[in-house]
Amino acid sequence: MIFDDEQNHIYGFVAICIFIVVLLFDIRQFKKSKKWASFTSSVIGLTIAFGLFTTLYILKQRDNSPSKIYCVTKMNDFNGISIDFREDGTYKLTSWSLGADIYRGKYKIKDSIITIDKSKIENAITSKRFVIRQDGEIDSSGIQEKSVYQIDDQGQLIKQSVDFRVIDKKKTK
User: Where are the alpha helices (DSSP H) in the chain?
Assistant: First the structure.
């Protein structure tokens, strides 16, 4: 999670270096044979590079939708879970410890009930349904903070499940 972008930059740099070596070899072959077929490996390399960069761009676009509700686990330690419910109807659940596992899906919200498309994610999410409650502490601006709880099909809070607090991303920037 920390070095995701750096890792992609290193792969890109290595790929460019290899491509330059192959291109120089193909140019030397073309000068000897005068056949355009000498550039076959360079064309294949360009095609693969184009596919790689297109894929990276598409993957980066998944996270462009602004947050509607962003919440994190109430326990503050080295482990945790965050859920980013986005404006486009998708969510991104990140479970971290030393690394991070990311789960994505779709959600619907009606009044204060959020329904996601999966009923079990790792050991933390045990229900498809969540409820938003205004029961947190009162912040410095006098607004009562919100919490998100997992609920069962009857609308009852699930005991021993992970609870979340809603964070205003605008205030943390």
Answer: 4-33, 40-61, 169-172
